[in-house]
Amino acid sequence: MTLGTGQQIKLTVCGSGVLRVYAAAATDESVPFLSRCRACGHPRLQVGYSRERLVRKLVAGVQIDAYCLACDCIWPITARERAWVARGLAGLRSACGR
């Protein structure tokens, strides 16, 4: 997978249980993004935020938290990851006409 900066990353799935948990957490309105776990260093898919919630947090400058199921660790995403999320949301907005 390629991030917004052209950086290549490898996603590793740790068994079908992980996919079930993420699929259950994802909704039709969730906007997935990646954040690197501060404990294990692996990129983790984040699926718990809607577009509207992410936009509100970005505009207000409020912390956006990420979670690693393997480490049971929560951390605030970095400024660089916030910029990737913002660019992704802008692209989603223009593609959807919102």
Topology:
Layout: H1 16-25, E1 33-36, E2 43-46, H2 51-60, E3 65-68, E4 73-76, H3 79-96
Antiparallel strand pairs: 1-2, 3-4
Describe the structure.
The protein is α+β, with helices and mostly antiparallel strands. The chain has helices spanning 16-25, 51-60, 79-96, and strands at 33-36, 43-46, 65-68, 73-76. A hairpin with a 4-residue loop joins strand 3 (65-68) and strand 4 (73-76). Helix 2 crosses helix 3. It contains 3 helices and 4 strands, in the order αββαββα. Mean pLDDT is 77; it is low at 1-5 and 7-22. It has one domain. 39% of the residues lie in helices and 16% in strands. The strands form 2 sheets. A two-stranded antiparallel sheet has the order 1-2.
Count all strands and give the number: 4
- Radius of gyration of CA atoms, rounded to a whole number: 13 Å
Q: What about the largest sheet?
A: 2 strands, antiparallel
Count the DSSP helices.
Answer: 3
Q: Distance between the terminal alpha carbons, to the nearest Å?
A: 26 Å
Q: Give start-end ranges of low-pLDDT stretches.
A: 1-5, 7-22
Strand order of the largest sheet: 1-2
Structure, briefly:
This protein has helices spanning 16-25, 51-60, 79-96, and strands at 33-36, 43-46, 65-68, 73-76. It has 98 residues and is an alpha+beta fold.
Summary keywords:
98 residues; alpha+beta; two-stranded antiparallel sheet; two-stranded antiparallel ribbon; 3 helices; 4 strands; globular
